[in-house]
Amino acid sequence: xxxxxDLSQKLLSxxxxxxxxxxxxxxxKTAQPYTVTIEAALFLCGNAHKYQFKVITLMSLTCxxxxxxxxxxxxxxxxxxxxxxxxSQTKEEATYxxxxxxxxxxxxxxxxDQNSNKSLTEQFDLICAExxxxxxxGALILLGGCIGxxxxxxxxxxxxxxxxxxxxxxxxxxxxxLATFSINIYMxxxxxxxxxxxxxxxxxACIIYLTETTSNTIRQLAPNILSIGWALGQIIIAILAMINxxxxxxTFIYTAIPLLVLITFSRTIVESxxxxxxxxxxxxxxxxxxxxxxINFRPLPENLMLQEEIKQQAFKNNLDKILGGxxxxxxxxxxxxxxxxxxxSFKCLFEYNSLRIRTFILTYLWCLLSFAYFVSAFAxxxxxxxxxxxxxxxxxxxxxxxxxxxxxSLRYPRKDIIRGILFTAGVIHLAFFVFLALDRxxxxxxxxxxxxxxxxxLAISTGNCVFNVYIAEVYPTSIRHYAFGYFGFATKLIAIxxxxxxxxxxxxxxxxxxxxxxxxFIGIPMLTKLRETFEQALKEQVEEEESVxxxxxxxxxxxxxxxxxxxx
Length: 568
Known about the structure:
single chain, mainly alpha, Growth Hormone, Chain: A, three-stranded antiparallel sheet, two-stranded parallel ribbon, 25 helices, globular, transmembrane, MFS, transmembrane transporter activity
């Protein structure tokens, strides 16, 4: 649903001021201010025009490039060919051998194929006792995502969306550049940690920014567009790896240079006007709106005024009339600041009755989807041994899922979509249990199992995008960044523990598919506790805070009528 028709009828409100002042102004032919809400102002300056498409293109391309390093681990840690010889042989007598033989006692080895396409495994000799560093490096990039989600959620509240987006782009560019000059695996792994930190925080901030600055249609497509960039990155990196798989190319040519180029285009990003209004920085909000309107070639009225700003000014005028006296006003302004400025944090997700149950249910469903996503990726690797086939196959599958997710996000209620995804995932996991009981060496069984895994991957990837859309809609502007930080943290935490859990299940001769199937079915009735957000306007404040934010003159004036002790 597009709000254009509704907005066009509600853009202008009554001129601010009493009737007497209006008559006086009319007598002097002074134009009255055009009073609009922040949503109407964004519609006037253009919320689906050139500026928005430039920003979306920049953000999706950044996600595409970031996928190169995130998804390039199979190439970065590719196992090289090894030649072995024992103590009674010379190096010239060495023959190709397996890693197990090379690491056996009384065996020497070396890398016979000396060329420029070195992996980190060969560069830093990570086989044998050092083979665990691949897993450690992978865990560190995920740990960076956890840290980035938590830290930059708070930074997004204090510093703003624009600053976080630009800062995270620099973090990714610098960390990938420094990784090129790594002298050992420890330095490289540290660079990966910062890269993961920057990317996850960037992704979260981008969804928040696009939610607050674009039209209803683009807002619903934003997570899908960013994810499409990621999926294309998986496909492109597999193609680039056919040219050169050197880890220097991955960090410098494929990642650092493109990111530095993209940073030069980020200067056009302005701060989110919704965020500035939430922080009561009305003049800065109008400057941002004017900047967007100029890029979109949509001129604004010279006397444009924000309804929120006028309400704030009216409140201050009322206080001045009621209180009078500078000292009392100073005391009241201090009290006003204490009441009006609400300091938010992660605990707000659980503090308010309107959010607590919602957050618990979404945490359960989000972690369940995330765990199944990484388990399916782990399972695919067992069926397709070729690295290029894995990445291209997963990339194409996710690309289809994100396109389909965008289609259904525009047409169907969120809860209906999520219910269908949970049911589909539950059924497929149940089918896995049956498939694994069959002869796994049979070609037909292997094909059916592999197709089922791909179908599961499609369903879960679709679910991830729909969940991002729902989270952006169900949480208000004042704490939306904390919601994305919290769920981003949960995603990366699940990603760290999912592979060891799967390996543990395999070692004890069991599989996680039956419990996962049950958990998916349990999640379906939980949806009744969530509110539907499809075709609903975004909320700016938590329900419990709306009366303070929108009608804060009532509690403050009541407080001001109480005696004030100026001698304290």
